[in-house]
Amino acid sequence: MRIIFRFGGIALLVAAIVILAVLPFATSFVEQWSRRDVELRSRLVFNSVRDQVTGLLARNDTQQVAGLFERIASDERVLAIGYCDGQELRFPTANMPKSFSCAEAARSDSESFSTVRNQDHNILVSSFPLNAGGRVGHLVVLHDLSYAEQRGGEARNYLFLALAGVAFGAAALAAMIAALIMRRWLASIRQALESARAGNAQSTVEENIIPLGKEIRDVLQELEASRRTIDAAHTDWSPDTLRAALANELSGSEVIVVSNREPYIHNRTEAGEISLQIPASGLVSALEPVVRACGGTWVAHGSGTADRDTVDANDRVPVPPNHPSYTLRRVWLSDEEQDGYYYGAANEGLWPLCHIAFVRPIFRESDWQLYRSVNEKFAEAIVAEAKREDPIILVQDYHFALLPRMIRDRLPNATIVTFWHIPWPNAETFGICPWREEIIDGLLGSSILGFHTQAHCNNFLDSVDSFVESRIDRERDSVFFGGEETLIRPYPISIEWPPTAMEGQKPVEECRRIVRERLSVSPDMRIGVGIERFDYTKGIIDRMQAIDTLLTEHPEWHGNFSFIQVAAPTRSKLANYRLLQEEAEALARDINERHGGNGYEPIKLLIRHHEPDEVFELFRAADLCIVSSLHDGMNLVAKEFVAARDDEQGVLILSAFAGASRELSEALIVNPYNAHAMGQAINRALTMPEPEQRERMRLMRDQVKERNVYRWAGQMLLSASRLRKQQRIRQLIARGRRRAAANA
Ligand code: F6P
């Protein structure tokens, strides 16, 4: 309704401006027109009496002239008449103004017209030359012009009324047209939303019939795309901007995060004390600062030996322990559940399925049943934690492929954003999974499903296309399945900026000295580092082979280069992981025997968990860092190394098969399967001039700073907010319809 009034108002305003501009012109036009009319009348008077007056003057019949003049002046339009004989006024009629003077009026040899002011109105003085008996005089006819002014005023009033009438008519017409357009517009939006929701072939037909609906959708898509670009390009993402985005876009919303790995693990030490551990997990290091900024609840598996001793009666514990800002809700799993769900289905099945590392996945039906039941258990925990019927739930990773659907069944109004932290394989590879349809169905319970890269999004869409009945909208990158839409989007994960682990770090020179001392390495030894979980996807063996090649092909590095490999034990229950560790230890020994000696160890293998500040100290002490993943969704170690180097020195050697290589293109990009090329890259890194190191590092730091983890979370949450707004529109339309039906 407001928009209709606005249209009418604008039309009225335009009309008022036109009226104000036109009225003065119209008045003066009417006045001029009336004056010309009076001039014409004067001329008529003169022409009709000229001969008679000439004759009477020639005969000097003054009485007849005066009588004739009085008769002419009796016409109500003629004010007065007289004869100017030179400067002398003769035979003036009774109404001749006292102020009239022949000197002013009768000066021309031809007819002339002039206006004089008398009291409060104008008088037109028409003067006509007259030859009477050889003497040239002037017949002067005076007309009162007040009637012309009156006519102008009347014309102005009529015109004003007429234009005002037209203006009101135009305003009413504009309002009617606006009302009509609005109705069509709303109908089109309704159609567009409905067809989008229906998601079947029918909607394609409807789009063609109602082009406006398609246009609206296109515009909305463009808006969304431009907003994504704006978000990406112009926001300096930080905890504050993330909090502001939440407050502006999702105020009053409830955020629940769910992951298998918990951000804080409480363990009982041998001395019986409780120690706190921050796990070696890319997921945790990325997500924890985000949840710290947003608040809310994080639901995760309580895996620590003292976890039960640190929760309240509802299995909740406020974290971070020093400055609590959110709630960790722990879910307990039996050994049997962990074996089937975590070690079995997730890490022997899905992990090798999704990573091209040539480790054969194992699919056990008994594992899958436990995977399903643990997903159910987490769904129940989430429902118990939810205080509203429409929370925003951020589901993390391959441990919870079935969870989005289970939440959707229990909380239909929830906004579920799922992020898959590992690669998604191509459809052919995914097709070997016996649970492929159930996994896709589970994930499509999400409102938004995110991957690190567009390539993984494409692989997922291809898998959906191959294995379930659905409609894929390739332009929108979404899947319509069972009447619901899931958006498939790339959100490259990152790290916090500035990293907490940088707080209290010593200057680079000091870190170099401290680390070399601690590891018993000579002060001028060049150092490379590799830091990760002991996982076969990380290419640890391949990296060692490259070092072997380097030392073989470039013996000048013997005694001058040492590689520190930090590997945190992980999933050690699994044979593949144990074998990897044994193989790595054996290879390190072998290389050290062949190339080392006299206290020189080319490879130092440190198999233990390192806390973030130790990791950053190592990064700062190193000349280069190797990330040689055989396949990796993103890899945050690469980004952390860059973040640690505020001295803008150090070289990153990065696998082309890690998602991070798409963003950190100034690293030395390598194929980890090519030991020779990787050896060359290490040599290149060790001989790279400082200015080149600085230039590369500066660009990478800018990239990591700008595309930090707050941006990652912010973009997902903004997408969730847009979805919720669209959902609200649909609900409003449905409510309006129900009311209309009830009133009908
Ligand atoms: O890469 C997926 C991922 O969840 C990472 O985020 C994390 O580094 C790793 O797996 C954690 O493994 P886990 O929790 O099994 O130790």
From TrEMBL:
Gene3D superfamilies: Glycogen Phosphorylase B (3.40.50.2000). GO terms for molecular function: alpha,alpha-trehalose-phosphate synthase (UDP-forming) activity. The chain crosses the membrane at residues 158-181. GO terms for biological process: trehalose biosynthetic process. Keywords: Glycosyltransferase, Membrane, Transferase, Transmembrane, Transmembrane helix. Its EC number is 2.4.1.15. It comes from the Bacteria. SUPFAM superfamilies: UDP-Glycosyltransferase/glycogen phosphorylase. Belongs to the glycosyltransferase 20 family. This is Trehalose 6-phosphate synthase. It comes from Microvirga lupini.
